[in-house]
Design goal:
The chain is mostly beta strands. 13% of the residues lie in helices and 39% in strands.
């Protein structure tokens, strides 16, 4: 028996060591694929070599380009780390397949290999290209960094690539189905950092830009989803997640083409016009956890956009408008905006939120509008070019408004310019379209630490004081639930996980699909619900909080108390056990002495 146990333990140990080694090897090795051929390029190579080993590498990109028609599907190209290649751009004419993409990457040790040529970096030179992965390279001092603009391209990945000092765009992609840009850095480009461009045929669709940084863009935007020169759109389903953009001449994020777009966990600051612009009839856009701050002009601009969600975001510190929304004309309007659970932070006297021209169907729910100073803003909101809350179908629910001095009674909370009407907070709360708004100090943390800034303090009136986002229609069971308004939520577009929500008292589920036309959400498991059950994103306590962050108690003090209580319980248990043992011992001793 002992031998069997020893054998099992040894087997488990060996299995653990092999598994650990395998994981370590995979995540730390240079990533070579299982391709039939791997071609190597280094500065001390020779173009007369066969290129098929590190001992016999090619020397130039020109050699690679001349042999590109002979390179097979799924064959890989690896440039030696620490080397610099300047003779010509790399032209890709062949790719791979889903199980074996063509990898263009790096080998050896040291810094990333550099491609530097004034004519360009890496370019797709053939239509119908599929399954290409570009990774672990640096491209600098070029006309462009990476450019794919051929018909019918699919499955392109750009991973861990640095692009610097291009006289045009850093990365420009078009006519692709499924793309990934991951962990890339683009800087000091003259035009834009990353461009997802429209086209007449094969509009680019189904893409993810993740954990990338763009900065110092001289003319245009950090990341842009944009029509082409002939006004052709991009396709649908694009996600920008975890990206940080700063010091661009125009916008950090220019989203002016396409539909089904999700911007999540991103940051923009010190850009020339704004952190974000939505326009040119973009549709079905979700902005989630955006941090816009210290912009040189505006925070967020929305013009000619439909079905927009902005939630759990912080808009702070622009030099002019924090949030500006308008439509160009009666046939080209902005409408159906859900602006909820956000923090709008006014940091100087010129700030205000402006709703202008042709806008309709807006709902502001569970937001905090607050100031860092005592005497500004002089007005929080302005509506221009005529109209009012009623005829524009604009509503406000469960918002908090505050400035440092509390605001005197005749302060202007809302201003309508045609005809001129100034509304103070008392008058504001009498308007039919305003429900449960509060003028009260939200008690927020003021901190330069991004992880702490603007979070709610214990005792904040915003805690558990928000409105539920929507309600169910009818009772039932299953995984498809009809709600009053599904536009508060996002299903992840099939590219990332959808929202986690609560239905009723405690049914925590994940959304896998949404039919916005029918207001039906599909979740990841079967549940039961009653008519009128509350539906909201995950929250703590009895109901959602107001503001961008759900308050979570400081558990450290409870932990200390719990540990103390556990120690007390432990020693009390020992004491009681000791008393019990002592009594048992005395009883047994007496019985033995009496011979019982």
């Amino acid at each position: 028996m002992k031998m069997i146990v020893i054998v099992i333990l040894v087997g488990l140990l060996i299995s653990f060591i092999i598994t650990a080694f395998s994981f370590n090897f995979y995540f730390n090795k240079d990533r070579f694929s299982d391709s039939l051929n791997i071609y190597y390029i280094s500065n001390d190579g020779n173009d007369s070599n066969d290129g098929l080993s590190q001992a016999t590498p090619w020397k130039t990109i020109s050699k690679v380009n001349s042999m590109i028609d002979l390179i097979g599907y799924g064959d890989d190209l690896y440039f030696r780390r620490g080397d610099k290649f300047t003779d010509t751009p790399l032209n890709i004419k062949i790719g791979g397949n889903s199980s074996d993409p063509m990898v263009i990457g790096a080998y050896g040790k040291g810094s990333k290999p550099i491609i530097s040529n004034i004519s360009g970096g890496i370019e797709c030179a053939s239509p119908n290209l599929k399954n290409v992965e570009i990774r672990d390279l640096r491209i600098e001092v070029s006309l462009f960094g990476i450019r794919f603009r051929q018909n019918n391209i699919s499955d392109i990945a750009i991973i861990n690539v640095e692009i610097d000092n291009c006289s045009n765009n850093g990365i420009i992609l078009s006519q692709i189905d499924r793309y990934l840009i991951d962990n890339c850095t683009i800087s000091n480009c003259s035009n834009s950092g990353i461009v997802i461009l429209g086209s007449l045929n094969y509009p680019i669709s189904n893409g993810l830009i993740r954990t990338s940084s763009v900065f110092n863009i001289n003319q245009n935007d950090g990341i842009t989803l944009h029509k082409d020169g002939s006004n052709n759109d991009i396709g649908s389903n694009h996600i920008i997640k975890g990206c940080v953009i700063w010091n661009c001449n125009e916008q950090a994020f220019d989203i002016t083409s396409g539909e089904n777009i999700y911007l999540k966990d991103c940051e923009g600051y010190n850009n020339g016009i704004s952190t974000l612009v939505l326009g040119h009839n973009v549709r079905n856009v979700t902005i989630d956890n955006l941090f816009s701050h210290d912009e040189r002009y505006m925070g967020v601009v929305i013009t000619n956009a439909q079905n927009v969600i902005i939630r759990s975001s912080i808009l702070s510190g622009s030099d002019y408008y924090i949030f500006n929304m308008y439509g160009q004309n009666k046939s080209d309007i902005s409408e159906n905006l859900k602006f909820y659970n956000n923090d709008v932070i006014f940091t100087n006297t010129t700030h205000e939120v402006t709703l202008a021209f042709y806008i309709n169907d807006l709902n502001f729910k569970n937001n905090i509008f607050t100031s860092t100073g005592d005497f500004y803003p002089t007005r929080f909101f302005k509506i221009t070019q005529g109209g009012n809350l009623s005829n524009r179908n604009i509503s406000f629910n469960n918002n908090i408004w505050w400035r440092g001095d509390g605001g005197v009674e005749d302060d202007t909370w809302w201003y309508i310019d045609n005809p001129p009407i100034k509304i103070n907070f008392t008058e504001w709360n009498r308007i039919d379209e305003v429900k449960n708004d509060l003028k009260i100090d939200p008690k927020m943390v003021v901190s330069n630490n991004i992880t702490d800034a603007y979070k709610l303090m214990e005792g904040s009136p915003a805690i558990d004081n928000g409105s539920f986002h929507t309600k169910t229609i009818g009772s039932g069971s299953g995984s498809k639930i009809m709600v009053r308004d599904a536009c508060y939520f996002c299903d992840g577009l099939g590219l990332i996980d959808g929202d986690k929500i609560i239905i009723g008292a405690d049914s925590k589920v994940k959304i896998v699909d949404i039919d916005y036309n029918q207001n039906i959400i599909e979740v990841n498991k079967s549940i039961s619900w009653d008519d009128g059950d509350n539906v909201s994103l995950l929250y703590y306590g009895s109901s959602p909080d107001i503001g961008a962050f759900e308050f979570t108690p400081d558990t450290s003090k409870f932990l200390k108390s719990d540990i103390s209580n556990l120690f007390n319980l432990f020693f009390m248990t020992l004491f009681c056990f000791g008393l019990f043992t002592k009594k048992l011992y005395i009883g047994l001793t007496r019985k033995l002495a009496l011979g019982r």
